[in-house]
Each structure stands twice: as structure tokens, then as C-alpha cells.
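Quick one, T. Sequence first:
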Amino acid sequence: MFRKKHSHASGFPTRMELLHDPALNKGSAFTDKERDALGLRGLLPPRVHTIADQVDRVLENFRKQPTDLAKYIFLIGLQSRNEALFFQVILNNLDEMMPIVYTPTVGQACVEYGHIFRKPRGLFITAEDRGRIEDIIWNWPEEDVRIIVVTDGERILGLGDQGANGMGIPVGKLTLYTACAGVHPVHTLPITLDVGTDREELLNDPLYIGMPHKRLRGPAYDEFIEEFVVAVKKVYPKAIIQFEDFANRNAFRLLAKYRERVCSFNDDIQGTASVALAGLFSSLRVTGLPLSQQKILFFGAGEAGIGIGELIVSAMVAEGMDRQAAMGRIWYVDSTGLVCKTRTDLAAHKKPFAHDHPFIGSLAEAVDKLEPTCLIGVSGTPQTFTKPLVEAMARINTRPVIFALSNPTSKAECTAEQCYAWTEGRALFASGSPFDPVVLNGKRHVPGQGNNAYIFPGVGLGAIVCEATQITDEMFSRAAHALAEQVTESDLETGCLYPPLKQIRKVSAHIAVAVAEVAYDEGLALKPRPDDLLQAMKDAMYNPAYVSYLD
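C-alpha cells:
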């Protein structure tokens, strides 16, 4: 019933441990019998409340908060006091809570992390800790960590280098692992690798929580990451490492280096790709145009854009298309212009998609000359899908597919309202951060949120349950199919390419099954295959209900 770390010499938790440990605390929900047996009488207000009563109290106070950042601080405070109640509130009100505990509000929380800091969460490992990283990981009190989300804070959402303030992202991601896929919080560990920051305002901020020096680079950085990965593998051999918000210069090569050595993935590359591919699969049911006939133009050629393109190519190949022909359906415009073979300034990750085509200097000209069926924004540059550009997509296509995926909301390439208005409601639109439904000419349009939260929690759950030794691109491809299969005809009638968030646990269970099936088929699972994979996933999900301490 109790974790070892909470026990004193008698093997039983103290009163204060019960009340001050968020994993044990029930607050006013401790029953009369529990209060007497555990010595809590008088330490709590006398009236006993149910968890439903407590949820109502939390919501009343949450909704009184004046800003989204204040709501974020309020919820993080609750998480630090009462874990079960926190997750019950999130689960019961996912549509309302997701934009607060994750994008877009988590972006603002990261920007101000040092100024709103209350209580440490997770592990901070600094460049100065080289040579003793394993000892630091051993300091974490939990014995069976299964999922680690780690960042070095260099590319937080579309906000750039936030240094150690980027801890808000691993904390937020792991909240979604629990809320969306039922991964027990005891199995989760957020980690920030504080290798410095190059952002001058952070270096000059006395309240910045990280080490105030420039970023570690070159061989020293690689040696630091190597020591970290080796230490994790030793301390937590069953843990999945999710690389999160690393800059392009490191993200691709770290994924290539470690994906077969340890069970790991990069959510910005692979998770984003999977959720975008799922949205594309859903759009095919509306447009009637097969995947092989899509011409997809990306604005932005970083981790997200290249990851999506690679996964779309894999999906086309899986349907029988020649790989080179599939690559020819994927086009990129970056900050310089069209990614093409005549350019000499291309980073390595862009070169496979450099086509033999005359250089085009602008996105608008690329849309005009290439006539794409689908336009995907992963640029981090707001309002770049202008009215003439979107109108051009609508002239080319009866039902233009337009994804403005940059996060947070302030970075979106266009808003849902703009996209629908400029296409007379014909666009199939998805965004990275949430937008409200739009009513146009009496018809209600529901913009789909192509949020990675639809993918990575289910992928993690599936890998944990089967104890996968690797996470492969095929798993993300199958996850995309599983997600798209959960979209109903009624969803599509409103233009929504993703299922409602309120169904996220059901969706995650099906994604987890798809991931585990790949692991079993490819010999990458250590646990025996259960007779009913779907039931196994449901059985593994954490339910944030209070337990009785007297059973």
C-alpha cells in the first residue's frame, strides 16, 4: 500500500507524510475511520468530502483565476498537494485543462518559469555534473521509472532557447502521459539537462533558475549526453527516453545515435509526424484523393517538417509507391526559399528532399507554381499563411488541406477563423494549439487540434506494457492509422480531422495496441503477448481515485 520511501522505522507513514506527500494525500476526503486509525483527527477540517466535492471546489477556484498563467500556477500547486485530485480534475475537464497544463499556456509558463517557481519537480542535471550523473539519477526516489521526458531547453515550442526554464515542457508532457493514457505518475520522470543558455535576458536575470553561462557545445556536449544515456540505462533499464525540444543541430543526430541503442524517440520529429499523418489520413476521406496523388508543401524544414515528410513517404511506400516517387510528392520552403538542388546552404536533414527544380524565393510563389493539395506550416512564424496565399490554395483545390501546426497559438501560421473565412468554409484545417469552433454562413466548423498529445501518450503506454526494446517509425505509422480510425463521419462533417479530446483515453488505448502489435511482430517486446491486447492496455491505466488506507 505504501512506497518504501515514505516509511519510517515502523514501516508505516507518518501523519505529516500522509498529508504532505501528494501521492498519499487525500485532504478532506480522509474518512472518519481513516482519521482515527492514522492519527489525523484534528489535523483536517472536520467535514469529510468526496473527491467529487473536491473537484467542484477546485473548479470554482480555478475559474476565478484572472489569467491562464494564474490558472497554470493554481493547477501546479494542486499537483504538488494532491496528485489523485489533480488528475481527476484534468480527466473530467480535459478540453478546459489541456490548454492550461500544456500548449499554449505552458509556453508562457516556461518563459516565466524562474519568476513563478514554487516547488522543484523532476531532476535538473547540469554540465557541471559531468562524472556524477549516475549518482544524481539515483537520487530520484522512485524505483521503477518507465518513461523519461528530457529536454536541454534549446528549442521550447516556437519560443526558442529557454535554458533550464524549459522544465515546464517535460513536466507538462508527463502530465499528459498520465491524463491521456493512464501511465501511472510513479513511473514518470521529467529531466532537464541544464547545459547553459545563449539567451542574454536569461543570463542577466537574477531569478533565472539555471546555470548562468553560455551553452555547452561540441564534443563536450556529446560526452555529457552519452554519460546521461548510459546512466539512465543502468539506473532505469526499462525506461523509455523521450527527447523533447532539442534544437535541430542536435535533435536529428541524437535520434540517429540512440534510437537503436536504447528505447527512445524524439516527439518533435516522430510524434508530430504521426499526428500530422493521421490528420492527412482523415482528410483523404473527405477529399477522395488518394495518398499517392497528394502534393504536400511544407513551410518550415526543421524537426517537425522533415519528420512529417519522412513518415508520409513511408506511408506512401507502404501503399506500394516507389520511394523516389513518394519523395517527389513532398516539397519544402524554408526561411531562404524552396529547398532545391541548386542551393549550397542546405543542412544535412534537408538534402534528401532537395528537388531538381528552379529556385523559388517565396512561399506564395511556391504555392502558385507547385499547386499543392496540402499546405503544412511548421515554421514557428505567425501569420505567414496570408489571405492571398490561402485563397490561392482554395482556387487550386475544392477542399484545400491547410495545417497551421506551429505552437503556441501566438506562433500559428494562420487562425482557424481566417482559414475558413478565406476559403468560404471549404478548408480542412488543423492547428497545433487549440482554436474555438467557427460559425460561417450558418455552418459550424470545428478545427482539429493536431496535438502530439493524441500520439505520444499511447505510444508510451504500448511500449511500457509490452516492454519494447525499441520504438520504430513503423510504430508511429501504425499509431497514425489507429488515430485516424477513431475519427467518425460526424467528426468529418464538422471538418474536424481528429476525435474529440474527451475520448483521448480510448484513443490512446487503441494506439497502444497498434504500437505493441508492431513490437510483437518485429520481436521487439520482452513481455509475453497477452490474449487480449486492448484489455491489457485498459487494465494498465492509472485511475486517479482515492484508495482506502484501512483495506
